Automatic annotation (TrEMBL), chains A, B:
<dbReference type="Pfam" id="PF00356">
    <property type="entry name" value="LacI"/>
</dbReference>
<keyword id="KW-0804">Transcription</keyword>
<keyword id="KW-0614">Plasmid</keyword>
<dbReference type="Pfam" id="PF00532">
    <property type="entry name" value="Peripla_BP_1"/>
</dbReference>
<dbReference type="GO" id="GO:0003700">
    <property type="term" value="F:DNA-binding transcription factor activity"/>
</dbReference>
<protein>
    <submittedName>
        <fullName>LacI family transcriptional regulator</fullName>
    </submittedName>
</protein>
<dbReference type="InterPro" id="IPR001761">
    <property type="entry name" value="Peripla_BP/Lac1_sug-bd_dom"/>
</dbReference>
<dbReference type="GO" id="GO:0000976">
    <property type="term" value="F:transcription cis-regulatory region binding"/>
</dbReference>
<keyword id="KW-0805">Transcription regulation</keyword>
<dbReference type="InterPro" id="IPR010982">
    <property type="entry name" value="Lambda_DNA-bd_dom_sf"/>
</dbReference>
<feature type="domain" description="HTH lacI-type">
    <location>
        <begin position="11"/>
        <end position="65"/>
    </location>
</feature>
<dbReference type="InterPro" id="IPR028082">
    <property type="entry name" value="Peripla_BP_I"/>
</dbReference>
<dbReference type="InterPro" id="IPR000843">
    <property type="entry name" value="HTH_LacI"/>
</dbReference>
<keyword id="KW-0238">DNA-binding</keyword>
DNA sequence: ATATGTTGTGAGACCGGTCTCTTTATATCA
DNA sequence: TGATATAAAGAGACCGGTCTCACAACATAT
């Protein structure tokens, strides 16, 4: 009874060749499925391969062909439904084209992102999809391009980087959602995001290093400004990174003398935290506070009331990013562009009509 | 202005060696961080490497060392919160030990699982964590062992396969949950799973090819039998694979002359579907029907009422599986065993007390 | 002074595939 | 029948690292 104690040198083409009494080159042709070999020899080799349980060493194969058949994906946090859906879309696109996917988590931290990118390049991935944690640090991404590895940005664009990006139409989405809220009579609206920040507040939109969030905030602010509502920036709050932080943010927001009547959650995690905060404060939605969340997450449809959301079609975004990357890998001639996946507002029950 | 049109042969140790005017072997020693090299030469080589922007080719490195630094994970469905949490646990354990993770989706299909396993073996992963779709087809897994690649099963055990497994204490969990329901006065209980099946019903527990589900059903049935309740198998229903199927399953269950008063959902996806089914049937939880779901998914805590669940501690399961696999990879001498992560019942509001 | 040990460097085999180039066997044609 | 085209198989270089071994230079022991 032999066991797996020893790494046991695996069966190689040479072994198969010897067993089939042909040259290594011939066996390789059969096993690699290239070149031309007679039917008789093919059978011989296949039989020998089956008998020896030959499995090709993809590593070696990659090394000589220069292609690994792998695309690397660096995301902020796989646990986030946004990213797991996106990864699903990417994987589906990849599988269809015969590629596999390595996923790396950056935890939205620049250093982790850099080392993940370096590692994947080292593994000689055929292409890379990255959700850049910050849009103001681009050396490592520029290096990817210099290394000749196709790159597609996901969810966030970096105009200075001459590279494809697949994002939502964040600005428009925020505008639509905000207009809907003002249309329902809301005059004091807050935007809450999980972005790291020293304090809740925000002084300068341009300093938001995540383009998706920045554009949403821009959209949000533009609608409020256009509607003549005062001091929109005052109601943009960051730092809702966990339940406790969120509880604090919400409590501060609502204890304001001019407390907002509606909240816009930057993603479904923040949305869920806000929902729980409101619940623990004993506030009812939408009677006491209205809310809209980004992303059609599971939980949003089973709450009471169900949550009005911005459907980001993340799966499509992922799929599109995957397809785009594969087109690049296959050298399809295409202009560098930013692909925007359009979102839609799904009205459910979490927004009250007020005023009049 | 050069661009990334050409794969541009990457910088190799030989290039660095030439630039540093030393032999390839010496440059390799410096860059690979092994052997012994004088400080002066080390500096020369490092300078040359920096100037040329050398990045090691991990593929080549893996090929000569025989280690890839990658562990492969084959899961049923990444989109399922159960697996994404588990993957997070595995990834964390892996990162801590300096490994990376490749994830492959089997879609709970045997063929996809087989080819994923083959592919990962081909990529020469250092170890493999697999959630076997079926416990009665084990050739491909046996082959993994014969190939000398450490293997850890996740969520489901296969006793015939002499290999480590990390699972929940599914039997006990089901027993606890079922006892809780009978303790609340329920006499007719149903167990609903997403397992594929020709018809809803179940004739023979032993034929359930997923050990986690089988053990839960065994626990479920044992409690009912012990309590002297008639025909427990009648209330075990499979095939709740999507919303429509689940609607059918629930409708049939509840239109039974002796309809169950409580439902046990095999996982959080099934739980969510059941919740939606009941909602669409206009039934109220727990007044009309009680339910318990496996897995502490996001949605279970924000419904009205919040759902009583079996907390599976999936992150810990994943982490444990990762750690175990890494111990195997590093040849730590350990007996093959099945590690059970204990679960706990989290009582919330979805179970009514009836009778008396 | 010669033998022995140590340290740093170079030469080249090796991992397991792919792929080009060459050689051999068979088919086609004048 | 001999010349030439063509198909099939073999030999061996190559990818970019690691790593063993040989060897040189210098230090220490005898």
């Amino acid at each position: 009874m032999e066991d797996s104690a020893h790494p046991k040198r695996s069966v190689t083409v040479a072994d198969v060749a010897k067993a089939a009494k042909v040259s290594k080159a011939t066996a390789a042709r059969v096993l690699g499925g290239y070149g031309v070999v007679s039917a008789k020899i093919t059978d011989q080799v296949m039989a020998a391969a089956a008998a020896l349980e030959y499995r090709p060493n993809e590593l070696a194969r990659s090394m000589s062909t220069g292609r690994s058949g792998i695309i690397g994906v660096v995301v902020g946090d796989i646990e986030n439904a946004f990213f797991s859906l996106a990864v699903r879309g990417i994987s589906d696109a990849a599988r269809l084209a015969g590629f596999n996917v390595i996923i790396a988590n950056s935890g939205e931290e620049l250093d982790a992102e850099k080392s993940a990118v370096d590692l994947l390049i080292g593994k000689r991935v055929d292409g890379l999809i990255v959700t850049p944690a910050r849009c103001d640090s681009i050396d490592h991404l520029q290096h990817v391009r210099r290394a000749g590895v196709p790159l597609v940005l996901f969810d966030r664009a970096i105009p200075e980087l001459d590279v494809d990006a697949v994002t939502g139409d964040d600005r428009d989405a925020a505008i639509t959602a905000t207009r809907y809220l003002t249309g329902q009579g809301h005059r004091r609206l807050a935007y809450v995001s999980a972005m790291d920040a020293e304090d809740d507040g925000l002084t300068d939109i341009a300093r938001i290093s995540n383009s998706a969030v920045r554009e949403r905030v821009e959209g949000f602010v533009s609608v409020l400004t256009e509607a003549g509502l005062p001091n929109p920036l005052h109601y943009v709050r960051l730092g809702a990174t966990n339940q406790q932080q969120t509880d604090g943010v919400i409590k501060r927001l609502l204890s304001d003398s001019a407390a907002p009547t509606a909240l816009l959650a930057s993603d479904s995690l923040v949305g869920l935290r806000i929902f729980k905060s409101l619940q623990s404060l004993g506030l009812s939605i939408p009677k006491d506070v209205s809310m809209i969340s980004f992303l059609d997450a599971d939980w949003t449809s089973v709450t009471v009331p169900p949550i009005t959301i911005v459907d980001q079609r993340v799966y499509e975004m992922g799929k599109l990013a995957g397809e785009r990357l594969i087109a690049r890998i296959e050298r399809t001639p295409l202009a560098v562009e930013r692909l925007r996946v359009s979102t839609s507002l799904v009205v459910r029950g979490s927004v009250a009509t007020i005023g009049r």
